[in-house]
Write a structure and sequence with these properties.
This protein is mainly alpha-helical. It is 77% helix and 0% strand. The chain contains 16 helices and no strands.
Length: 354
C-alpha cells in the first residue's frame, strides 16, 4: 500500500492537507467569491454615482454582472485549486469542479470547510484510479465525481452546520466578552496568518464576520504591519511593502530559527484586538474571508468599509486607520527597540531571503 500511494503521488500528511490544500482553497476563494464581490461592489457604488450618464452606467452594470458570475463559481474554484495543490492529474482537476459545486451548495454557510474536506477525499480517490484502466477518461472522472457527490450529500450539510455553530459561538462570545475574545481572536487569527496555513480559509470556513471579524482584522494587521516595521532595519522599503501589503508569512523561516522575534507582533495583536472590539466596535461587514486577509491588498479594510454604505463618521475612519496601520506600526516599533536593546533580537534576525 505504501508503494502504491507513493506511485500515485498521494501523501497523507498535515502539510499536504492542512497547509497546501488549505492555502490553495483560500486562493480559489479569493479568485472567485472575493474578487467577484469587489468587482460587483465597485460596479454598484460607481453605478449609483454616474446614474445620469447612460454609457457609464452601462459599464457599471456590466461590472456587477461580471462580479456576480465570478462569485457564483466559488465552489468549483476552491475544489480545482485544492486538486492542483495536491498535484492531481488533469482529469481529476477538471472533475473536481463538480465536487466543489456540490460541496459548497450542500454546505451552505460552512461551504468552504465542506469543500476542503470533501474535495481532498474525492481528489485522492481520483488520483488513486487515474490511468489504472484502459478507459481512464471514463473511470477517473466517474470515481472523482461520484465519491465527491455522495460525500457532499451525506456529510456537507453536517459539516456546514458544525462550522456555522463554531462561527456563531465565536461571534456571540465576542459580543458578550469583547475584551477577552478580542484578545483571543486577534492573536489566534493573526498567528494563523503568519503560519503556513490560511487565516483567510479559517475565517471563511467559520463565517467569521461582525465584531469577531473586526478582531481578526486587527490581529492580521498587527502581524503584517508589525513585521514590516519591525524588520525595516534589515529589509528596507522592499520588506515594508512585501510584508505590509503582501504577507507576514515571509518571516516564517526566521521565526523557525528564532521564535522570540514573533513576540512583538503577537503582543501588538493582543493590544489592538480589544481596542478594536471595545473602543471602536470595528466590525467585518464584508465576506468572512476578508477577516483573515489583514492589509493584503487592503482586502480587510475594504471588507470593513463595505457595510458602512456612506454612514460612517470620523470616529469609524479613525478606528479603521489606527487599528489597521498606525497602532501596529507604533507598537512594533517601540517593542522592536526594546527587544533589540535587550539583545533578544539581533541585527539580521529578521532578514528576508533574497
Amino acid at each position: 500500500m505504501r508503494a502504491f500511494l507513493k506511485r500515485k503521488n498521494i501523501h497523507i500528511s498535515w502539510k499536504a492537507y492542512g497547509i497546501d490544500a488549505m492555502s490553495a482553497m483560500a486562493q480559489g476563494l479569493f479568485a472567485s467569491l472575493l474578487i467577484g464581490t469587489i468587482i460587483k461592489t465597485l460596479g454598484q457604488q460607481a453605478g449609483n454615482a454616474v446614474a445620469d450618464i447612460s454609457w457609464l452606467k452601462q459599464i457599471c452594470d456590466w461590472l456587477v454582472d461580471i462580479g456576480t458570475f465570478a462569485s457564483a463559481v466559488a465552489g468549483p474554484a476552491m475544489a480545482v485549486s485544492i486538486a492542483v495543490a495536491l498535484k492531481a492529474p488533469p482529469l481529476v482537476v477538471f472533475s473536481a469542479a463538480a465536487v466543489g459545486q456540490a460541496a459548497n451548495d450542500m454546505g451552505k454557510a460552512g461551504g468552504p470547510l465542506a469543500v476542503l474536506l470533501i474535495a481532498i477525499v474525492a481528489v485522492e480517490f481520483g488520483k488513486a484510479v487515474s490511468k489504472e484502466t484502459k478507459i481512464d477518461i471514463l473511470i477517473t472522472p466517474f470515481v472523482t465525481v461520484v465519491i465527491g457527490g455522495l460525500l457532499s450529500i451525506w456529510t456537507a450539510p453536517h459539516i456546514g452546520w458544525a462550522a456555522s455553530k463554531v462561527g456563531d459561538f465565536t461571534k456571540w462570545a465576542t459580543e458578550q466578552q469583547p475584551f477577552i475574545m478580542g484578545i483571543i481572536v486577534s492573536v489566534v487569527i493573526g498567528m494563523a496568518l503568519t503560519l503556513p496555513i490560511s487565516s483567510a480559509a479559517i475565517c471563511a470556513s467559520f463565517g467569521l464576520t461582525g465584531l469577531a471579524g473586526g478582531a481578526a482584522v486587527a490581529g492580521c494587521c498587527a502581524q503584517m504591519i508589525g513585521f514590516a516595521v519591525l524588520s525595516y532595519k534589515e529589509n528596507k522599503v522592499g520588506g515594508l511593502v512585501s510584508q505590509g501589503i503582501g504577507t507576514s508569512m515571509l518571516q516564517m523561516g526566521n521565526i523557525a530559527k528564532k521564535p522570540i522575534i514573533w513576540l512583538p507582533p503577537i503582543i501588538a495583536s493582543a493590544i489592538t484586538g480589544p481596542i478594536a472590539t471595545c473602543i471602536f466596535r470595528l466590525e467585518m461587514n464584508g465576506l468572512p474571508i476578508s477577516s483573515g486577509m489583514g492589509t493584503c491588498g487592503f482586502v480587510g479594510q475594504i471588507g470593513v468599509i463595505t457595510g458602512w454604505n456612506g454612514s460612517a463618521d470620523w470616529f469609524d475612519w479613525l478606528g479603521l486607520v489606527l487599528i489597521s496601520f498606525i497602532l501596529p506600526a507604533i507598537l512594533c516599533f517601540v517593542l522592536g527597540r526594546i527587544f533589540r536593546a535587550s539583545g533578544l533580537i539581533k541585527d539580521g534576525d529578521l532578514k528576508l531571503a533574497e
